[in-house]
Amino acid sequence: MTPRNVAFGRGHSHPRWWMSGDPVATAFYNALSLSFPAGESYFVQSVRYYLNELPEPLRSQVADFAQQEAYHSREHIAFNRQVHDAGYETKEIEALNREDARRGRDLEPEVNLAATAALEHFTAMFAHALLADERHLAGAPAEVRRLWQWHAVEEIEHKGVAFDTFMYVTRDLSPFKRWFFRVMVMWQATNDFWKERTRDLHLLLRQDNIDTPKTWRKLALFLFLKPGMLRQVFLPYLAYYLPGFHPWAHDDRKLANKVEGSLKLDEAALA
């Protein structure tokens, strides 16, 4: 893992419907981005809770994971500010996402860790799809595309950290109990994730006066057919439910390295 301290789009603005002029595709990515700062803070706290009891090299990996997520949060806060500047009221959505994370922190630490492992699998699946199929970001402005690709590269790099931490923390459970624990949490995390993103999408689409059945049919076609991100991640999602699952059973580091090389990331850009 390499925490890359880079910045994107400072001083830039983008159209209200920045994804190919499509309000539906734009709303989907905006809803994801608006969830990232609160969600990634929750992930970091859930994993760092166990930092002092972890062995090396996992302990150092958690530190790098936390640093990468901190940079992701900072850059999506900047991006979300641009979403607001493009005319969307985002404060309500951001507040709802902070409340979602706060409720999560009231759970037992082991549940928070299992939820983080599950949701990190979500981010890794989406990251792979974004990098493997150029259609997903083809209509984005260049600097926005670079932001999402950089984020995706680092999500792939650290995709095993939360899962490995969960496996270490629950090492005294029987294999069946540990499997049952993580898949039940994944099922709940899946339901919560889509309930919350559907809520946020309603709030965004309503601001464009297009929160209608026709728009949701168009969103379904976008997600399942063309380019079809949810169709692409369906089998990887199901893999999490297998007893022998591990994130690195699907090694996509070559893909991440290829895209990272094309981005020509320059940490000096932050200044």
Automatic annotation (TrEMBL):
Matching InterPro entries: UCP07580
Pfam families the UniProt entry points to: Metal_hydrol
Top-level lineage group: Bacteria
UniProt-listed PANTHER family: METAL-DEPENDENT HYDROLASE
Protein name: Metal-dependent hydrolase
Protein's organism: Caulobacter segnis
